[in-house]
Amino acid sequence: MTLPLSKGSAFALLLMSAACAFCACNMGNQQPTQPAAIPDTRTADETLIRNLDAEWVKTVAGKDAQKSSSYYAGDGVLMAPGAPLASGQEDIQKTWAGMLATPGFALTFAPAKVTVARSGDLAYEVGDYEMTINDKKGKPQTVKAKYVVVWGKQSDGKWKALVDAPTTTH
Of the N and C termini of the chain, which has fewer Cβ atoms inside 10 Å? Predict the structure, then answer.
């Protein structure tokens, strides 16, 4: 069964058909859109990480375990020499509290190299550290060694340590 079309209905149907054909032809000519280029923030991120390290050294000198552990991501890992692996904020804070309470404890560190991934979400640094603790007789003993820290940019844009792995000389 076909319904009779008025002149206006026939014209509207013809117009819609033409519009659909026009759209279909244009869709084939469209260029795929390119994803937006990720801005290169490596130099700025390297500066941020170096500044974080400088703050971190001051925090450690202030013997603040809670603030010292705040430089780590929530699921971060600390591999402190002579201590069990500390994973997560609570374990890392306990490890820092133990180190900071050690008689004669002092720690300084500085990155020799900071490399930020082009993606801007990961970085690593290698550097030197110097740690002093008192021996059993109370005499300060200083160890000089190397370390690696892997950094991750968090969802809030802040850099946090994912893995902190100092080496030892023993």
Answer: N
**Dihedrals φ, ψ of 153, to 5°?**
-80, 125
CATH of the domain at 117: 3.10.450.50
Per-residue pLDDT of the chain (170 residues; tens, 9 = 90+): 444 545 544 444 444 444 444 444 455 556 667 777 788 999 999 999 999 999 999 999 999 999 999 999 999 999 998 889 999 999 999 999 999 999 999 999 999 999 999 999 999 999 999 999 999 999 999 999 999 999 999 999 999 999 999 997 65
Q: Is 17 part of a structural domain of the chain? A: no
CA 71 – CA 68 distance, rounded (Å): 6
Which residues form the domain of 118? 42-166
Instruction: Single out the residue of 45, 87, 84, 54 nearest to residue 69, CA to CA.
Output: 87
Within 21-94, strands assigned E span: 72-78, 86-87
